[in-house]
Write a structure and sequence with these properties.
Aspartate Aminotransferase, domain 1, 11 strands, seven-stranded mixed β-sheet, alpha/beta, Aspartate Aminotransferase, domain 2, binds pyridoxal-5'-phosphate
Length: 356
């Protein structure tokens, strides 16, 4: 049964599985990335971003973010990020751990997006010897709230960072979903907008494991291979991660998968938007729908077998679509949410009236 808890609950897409089987059947192959699939995946990523970037593969998104940020900072530095970001909230201190102490400073700015003003504000403490010194900014595209940064917004944040000598990292676990929404060139939303290093996610978009770390500023990637190895993130059977990547990057499959997930989120949002008692919390710009649902409605929907996360407080629910979400599943889920809402709301209205 398909669910709405996370896009990482979905399996691998068939083309990625086929590539995995093909690479697996090739017999013995040199390890640690010295193979044709890894070379091909790096080449495809360079073509995709229209630049001669340095590309590495690690096991997880946390590994990609933590190692990239550790490479940009020293132990007494700070990373400015959104307060709800994965690096601030969901990595068990991995960026702090791998950097040996760099502190993540959270900004509680609207819609999950950093602003130049928030960056400026944190940079105000730059000269104070008693506080961690800002050295990097990390922004998430698409954001944890399912919104997307426009190119101009990224440029503005990056310009503020650069003005204070900060490097700019992008957590692109769901970068594909942002590109699918904006119909933009990947280069225009990354290095041309001022991104130095990026964690480029494939897992939520149809792979089984392995995220890419892409250095657009190649002067920053010196010795990064050693950091990956020390961090336990160097895959010996690299081809089994990179062969599926080659499939994902072939024929715009990464974009088609993301477009599908986004379309399913739009379908879900449309079905919920007009139902009395439900309120969408953020514009739906990627593959997540955030909706305010009373706790008793959530209980009723879960009792029907559905899974989703209560993400913000006790009522803010995150409904996540994936590359493989079926339209019929979306419709059934939406109908159950709408029905539970109207049933319980009517009951409580009647109950209230009775008491008056
Ligand atoms: C899923 C996700 C990651 C990666 O998480 P892992 O579980 O470590 O692979 C990173 N950033 C964001 C915004 C994510 O949603």
């Amino acid at each position: 049964m398909q669910q709405f808890a996370s896009d990482n609950n979905a399996g691998m897409c068939p083309q990625a599985v086929a590539a995995l089987i093909e690479a697996n059947g090739a017999g013995h192959v040199m390890g640690y990335g010295d193979d044709r699939w890894t070379a091909q995946a790096c080449k495809q990523i360079r073509a995709l971003f229209e630049t001669d970037c340095d590309v590495y593969f690690v096991f997880s998104g946390t590994g990609a973010n933590a190692l990239a940020l550790a490479h940009l900072t020293r132990s007494y530095h700070a990373v400015i990020a959104h307060a709800s970001s994965h690096v601030a909230e969901d990595e068990t201190g991995a960026p702090e751990f791998f950097s040996g102490g760099a502190k993540v400073l959270g900004c509680d700015t609207p819609l999950g997006k950093l602003t130049p003003e928030a960056v400026e504000e944190h940079c105000g403490i730059m000269g104070r010897i008693h506080t961690s010194r800002p050295k990097a900014v990390s922004l998430t595209q698409s954001t944890e709230m399912g919104t997307v940064y426009r190119a101009a917004e990224i440029e503005a944040v990056a310009a503020a960072a650069r003005a204070h000598g900060l490097k700019v990292h992008m957590d692109g676990a769901r970068f594909a979903n942002a590109i699918a929404t904006l119909n933009a060139k990947p280069a225009d939303l990354t290095w041309r907008a001022g991104i130095d290093v990026m964690s480029f996610g494939g897992v939520k978009n149809g792979l089984g494991a392995g995220e890419a770390v892409v250095f657009f500023d190649r002067t920053l990637s010196d010795e990064f291979a050693w950091r990956i190895k020390q961090g336990g993130q160097l895959n010996s059977k690299m081809r089994l991660v990179t062969a599926p990547w080659t499939a994902l990057l072939n024929d715009d499959l990464w974009l088609r998968n993301a477009r599908h997930a986004n379309a399913m989120a739009q379908r879900l949002a449309t079905a919920l938007a007009d139902a009395p008692g439900l309120r969408l919390m953020y514009p739906v710009e990627a593959n997540a729908v955030f909706v305010e649902m009373a706790p008793e409605v959530q209980t009723a929907v879960r009792a029907k077998g559905w899974a989703f996360y209560t993400f913000l407080g006790t009522t803010g629910c995150r409904l996540m679509c994936a590359w493989d979400s079926h339209p019929e599943t979306v419709d059934r889920f939406a109908a159950d949410v709408v029905a539970a809402t109207s049933r319980l709301l009517n009951f409580s209205t009647a109950d209230r009236l009775r008491r008056i």
